[in-house]
Design goal:
The protein has helices at residues 20-23, 40-43, 125-134, 158-167, 180-187, 194-203, 214-243, 248-281, 356-364, 390-397; strands at 10-17, 32-34, 48-58, 61-75, 86-89, 104-110, 115-120, 145-147, 287-288, 301-303, 320-324, 344-348, 367-371, 388-389. It is α/β, with parallel strands linked by helices and 408 residues long. It folds into three domains: 10-154, DNA-binding pseudobarrel domain (At1g16640 B3 domain), CATH 2.40.330; 177-281, no CATH class; 287-397, Restriction Endonuclease (3-Layer(aba) Sandwich). A hairpin with a 4-residue loop joins strand 6 (104-110) and strand 7. Helix 6 (194-203) packs across helix 7. The longest helix is centred in the middle third of the chain and has 34 residues, at 248-281.
């Protein structure tokens, strides 16, 4: 994928809200998305079949439902030229059975001339992330809107774009074999220690100014970490797959689940490691993994000089805690403290946007999101939740008076 846009992956996209007839075929015995004249610019003006993938996404299920299908683009009134009615027929699958009226429908034409038809639950986080990814405008009319060329005006957002593409099951190659020999020499074939690997990642990136522009540095480091880790991971996975599995179904799927879980954990550790490096460069005093309240998730960073295990931190003025989650998931596990404590809680994430329900949960729990500055527009601007850039948060931390170094 080229930096900054998706035109090397998709050549065009159309989007709309599903109508009751499209989402609930039993109401009309149809299994079709109603086409319009505009859609012909994406799919052409001749009857044809497209190999494609249909997917459904919702926040309550992190794994997309996907099925490979054959989609039919045709004129339902081709014998009556003056009454042309173009439609895209889709077969009934376990995916299409989840469609609901009002859900976001996106039809994207891939560069290999296949189609991706993805439907996202109305009001969900993934809906907003898909609209951000494709640069879609507001949906203020019932029909399709079409973009014949996909470009993103976002700067340095390859990590975030790949994040969303991974969510919808589009596998983009994140690897770079140029560093493989060096990594094997440094770390061997085992999973490398997270902090050591992140330090190595930063050493491979030149030309950044993490003091003057911490937001860009954070994104570039995370993007580079993802590329290098996937490169090393692919080498290890290749060895494991070559060895085979005694219990083929269970063994393989258990291994796949282990790989996915390790990736998620590594992203959190990497984000925390790179942000800790920024704290050090900016001269911010902090503590790691300090217990704030019993039976509450531990925050990743504590500011304002609280001692480990000190449970009356909320009595200290200007106290702040920060949880680090590359993917937010359940906002109940952000490592924050209860709103009644009076502690300022923050959530550092690289997830490009959150849905209305998650933003409401943040507001209820008095948690302020912190994201690289380029991701701020992806968050819903009508929310009462303030969104800070990494640079703004670091600047705010500079107002704290530290009585002593925090151990942790």
């Amino acid at each position: 994928m080229k930096r900054g846009h998706l035109s090397s992956w998709f050549t065009g996209v159309a989007w709309k809200r599903l109508t009751a007839v499209e989402a609930l075929p039993h109401k009309s015995n149809q299994h079709e998305f109603d086409g319009v004249q505009k859609l012909k610019t994406l799919l052409g003006s001749e009857r044809r079949w497209y190999p494609g993938t249909v997917a459904y996404l919702m926040d309550d299920d992190p794994e997309p439902l996907r099925a490979d299908v054959r989609l039919t683009w045709y004129d339902a009134r081709e014998r009556i030229p003056k009454r042309s009615e173009w439609r895209l027929y889709y077969p009934t699958t376990f995916v299409s059975e989840r469609y609901s009226e009002g859900d976001l429908l996106i039809i994207a034409r891939r560069a290999n001339d296949t189609l991706l038809v993805v439907v996202a639950e109305e009001g969900s986080t993934i809906e907003g992330q898909l609209m951000w990814l494709f640069g879609l405008g507001a949906i203020d009319h019932p029909g399709f809107s079409v973009k014949g060329e996909i470009e993103s005006g976002h700067l340095m957002l390859d990590f975030a774009a790949n994040f969303v593409l991974d969510l919808i099951g589009e596998n983009v190659d994140h690897t770079d074999d140029s560093c493989l020999d060096v990594m094997l020499r440094l770390f061997g074939r085992d999973d490398p220690p997270p902090d050591e690997f992140s330090e190595y990642v930063r050493s491979t990136v030149q030309g950044l100014d993490p003091v003057d522009d911490p937001d860009t540095a954070l994104l570039v480091w995370m993007e580079r970490e993802e590329v290098l880790y996937r490169t090393l991971e692919r080498h290890r996975i290749g060895d494991r797959l070559s060895a085979g599995f005694r219990d083929v179904p269970g063994g393989f799927f258990d291994f796949s689940a282990e790989v996915q879980a390790r990736r998620s954990q590594r992203q959190n550790r990497a984000l925390a490691s790179h942000f800790e490096h920024l704290l050090q460069l900016h001269g911010v005093d902090y503590g790691r993994s300090t217990v704030i309240e019993p039976e509450v998730d531990v925050p990743d960073f504590v500011f304002a000089g609280a001692a480990v295990g000190q449970l009356d931190l909320w009595r200290k003025p200007m106290a702040r805690v920060l949880a680090v989650r590359s993917r937010t998931g359940d906002l109940a596990s952000t490592g924050g403290v209860s709103p009644k404590s009076g502690i300022d809680s923050y959530l550092l994430t690289l997830e490009p946007g959150l849905g209305a329900a998650q933003m409401t949960a943040l507001a209820k729990n008095r948690i302020t999101p912190v994201v690289p500055v380029g991701l701020k527009p992806a968050f819903q601007q009508d929310s009462s939740v303030l969104v800070l850039s990494a640079g703004e948060f670091l600047k705010a931390l500079g107002t704290i008076e530290y009585p002593r170094r925090v151990s942790g």
